[in-house]
Write a structure and sequence with these properties.
The chain is an alpha+beta fold and 620 residues long. The chain has 20 helices and 22 strands. The chain binds flavin-adenine dinucleotide (FAD).
Length: 620
């Protein structure tokens, strides 16, 4: 074999897959169309956001690259939902897109075991009808490998729409991947069509920022990566600006609905529900008199701004008109017009939890090809596919994260068991155990795995272990320490502005009050006042969630026990109240021997498992 692993595509998924595989000692080849575009951000110049920030932190904790790159290329850092609970906060950074690409390209070129080659993979080399053993490229090169990971993003049979105009492309002005998905279909995979879109970019010199609200970064920005030294982190930050559409904009859009590819039937694929185009928003929310827009710098040069919220595939004359109707953009010059793109994806229920396809051996899919949208979702899958391909070569146990361990576990489980017919993006609401799955504890949850795979070094893991030790000791201390309503305690509470206590309370419940901050913590738990601010913040968060976490952990234990339950051979799923006919049909067809096996079938939700479990117990 020429290589252990071949990765097709140098986008966000492909980068993480290649780096993970190479760093795990596997001879890896990354084949991508334009090496300059390794790590290109096709759409918004930003990484993270609600739930997406979780994915980046988890990926980072396991040893992925996205967080480190964002810390280097970031030009504005914010914690979203900072005033809400830690579980629903999300880190977000504006990035310098050029710097991001430069960094990722450099890392790919300089990672031992990893080779980079520019070409288009036109087909897979397949033997015995369903075993992949390499790839063939457009320049007719053939490379053999033990595993192939496809991460082609929006490129497979990509078709760009701008008004009545259509042209084949993978992304604006880049060639599409025209043959690969045809072969995937011939090999028996269920291939579908989706769409996504992007707004125009405008020349900074033509924008009147004076009429817009400025939107800056955090005063004390936090890095994305657990491996970036927080004490030395002081990036130069650039502002974004806020403006709004208005009734005139909406009129210009709606009077041209008849020319909008989205409505004329020209676009067949479904688009991302939570990132709709402006024509879709104006159509669906006709009662709204304005929509908020963010102007985001594309790079630190601030020559071009991305208009977040104005994604569109309307004809260019309409795009120009609608932009000019917006406050501050009256004289805006467009550098690049917005467009929509339709592309082929592979139904993710074709995949195992390892991201290997069920029907074709040695073939893994990761990223937008699996019907997701977003750099973070793509990168997380890439990392998991890279790790699993490397583990499979060594005949080791696969790496599957459970839903209670990580958002990455939720993402992959949702995709491979439920599937999706529209672009899937991550939300905190998708995670049942979100109180456990916080951004700030991703290293505690996951870094040990990364260390086991050789992706996290000894120094980093030692820091994580120390952090865990201090937090656990502090929690144990507080969970066993009674605070009584003696005179000194009441005086102390009054002095720090805290409500009195009656009789006695456990210290952990006192620290769990929402009003407790680091200064109050120091007074109430003086024996832990010595720990650094970052760690202290974590102890306080853990104390706040202590009771809920205990409850969730009990539920998880219950679920783990439940999944072990065997399903009797003669058990009939037919007629079970609460299960849809589709679910019953699947269960009857697969006849899973245990609830765990049932949980791996696409469409079988935790609620369905509960119903089966209950009925097994009743019928036994
Ligand atoms: P990509 O980043 O697309 O990378 C694919 C890579 O594979 C490219 O480098 C390409 O050259 C290479 N490649 C493809 N085929 C081959 C082949 N046959 N041989 C060799 N190399 C190949 N995400 C959001 O979250 N919100 C949005 O609003 C949003 N809008 C978008 C709008 C547009 C127009 C586009 C194009 C994307 C948008 N995205 C959006 C999606 C986001 O860009 C992707 O989710 C993310 O980049 C997917 O990462 P990926 O690694 O799967 O693929």
């Amino acid at each position: 074999m020429d290589y252990d692993v071949i990765v097709v595509g140098g986008g966000h998924a492909g980068i993480e897959a290649s780096l993970a595989s190479a760093r795990m000692g596997k001879k890896t080849l990354l084949i991508t169309m334009l090496v300059e575009q390794i790590g290109a951000a096709s759409c918004n110049p930003a990484v993270g956001g609600l739930a997406k920030g979780h994915l980046v932190r988890e990926l980072d904790a396991i040893g992925g690259e996205m967080g480190l790159c964002t810390d280097v290329a970031g030009i504005q850092f914010r914690i979203l939902n900072a005033s809400k609970g830690a579980a629903v906060q999300g880190s977000r950074a504006q990035i310098d897109m050029d710097k991001y690409r430069e960094y990722m390209r450099k890392v790919c070129h300089n990672t031992p075991n990893l080779s980079v080659y520019q070409d288009e993979v036109s087909s897979l080399l397949v033997k015995n009808g369903n075993e992949v053993y390499g790839v063939k490229t457009k320049l007719t090169e053939e490379f053999t490998s033990k595993k192939v990971i496809i991460t082609t993003g929006t490129f497979m049979r990509g078709l760009i729409h701008i008004g009545e105009n259509r042209y084949e492309a993978g992304r604006a002005w880049e060639l599409p991947s025209s043959t690969l998905s045809i072969q995937l279909k011939e090999l028996g995979l269920n291939v579908g069509r989706l769409k996504t879109g992007t707004p125009s970019r405008i020349d900074a010199n033509s924008i009147d920022f004076s009429v817009m609200d400025m939107h800056g970064g955090d005063i004390n920005p936090s890095p994305f990566s657990f491996r970036t030294d927080k004490s030395k982190f002081s990036p130069t930050q650039f502002p974004c600006y806020i403006t709004y559409t208005n009734l005139e904009t909406h009129e210009k859009i709606s009077s041209n609905f008849y020319r909008a590819p989205l409505f004329t039937g020209q676009i067949e694929g479904l688009g991302p529900r939570y990132c709709p185009s402006i024509e879709d928003k104006v159509n669906r929310f006709a009662e709204r008199d304005r929509h908020q827009l963010f102007l985001e710098p594309q790079t630190a040069m601030c020559t071009e701004y991305y208009i977040n919220g104005l994604s569109t595939s309307l004809p260019i004359d309409v795009q120009k008109d609608m932009i000019h109707s917006i406050a501050g953009l009256e004289n805006a010059k467009v550098v690049r017009y917005g467009y929509a793109i339709e592309y082929d994806y592979v139904d993710p229920t074709e995949l195992k939890h390892t991201l290997e396809t069920k029907k074709i051996k040695n073939l893994y899919n990761a990223g937008q090809i699996n019907a997701t949208t977003g750099y973070e979702e793509a990168a997380a899958q890439g990392l998991m596919a890279g790790i699993n391909a490397a583990l499979a070569i060594d005949e080791k146990e696969p790496f599957i994260l459970r839903r209670d361990e990580a958002y990455i576990g939720v993402l992959i489980d949702d995709l491979v068991t439920k599937g999706t017919n529209e672009p899937y993006r991550m939300f905190t609401s998708r995670a049942e155990y979100r109180l456990l799955l916080r951004e700030e504890n991703a290293d505690l949850r996951l870094s040990q795995y990364g260390h086991n795979f050789g992706l996290i070094d000894d120094i980093t893991i030692a820091k994580v272990e120390n952090k865990r030790k201090v937090i656990d000791e502090a929690l144990e201390f507080m969970a066993n320490e009674w605070v009584t309503s003696k005179k000194e305690t009441l005086e102390l509470l009054e002095a720090i502005g805290e409500e009195r206590i009656n009789d006695k309370v456990l210290l952990i419940d006192l620290i769990g009050r929402n009003s407790i901050d680091a200064a109050k913590f120091d007074k109430l738990v003086p024996n832990y006042a010595f720990v650094d601010d970052y760690l202290k913040e974590q102890i306080i968060i853990e104390a706040k969630y202590y009771r809920y976490i205990q409850k969730q952990q009990k539920q998880i234990e219950k679920m783990k026990k439940m999944l072990k339950a065997t399903i009797p051979e003669n058990f009939s799923f037919k007629g079970l109240a609460g299960l849809s006919n589709e679910v019953i049909e699947k269960l009857e067809r697969h006849r899973p021997p245990t609830l765990f096996n049932a949980s791996l079938i696409s469409g079988i939700t935790p609620a369905a498992l509960d119903i089966i479990h209950l009925n097994i117990n009743i019928k036994q």
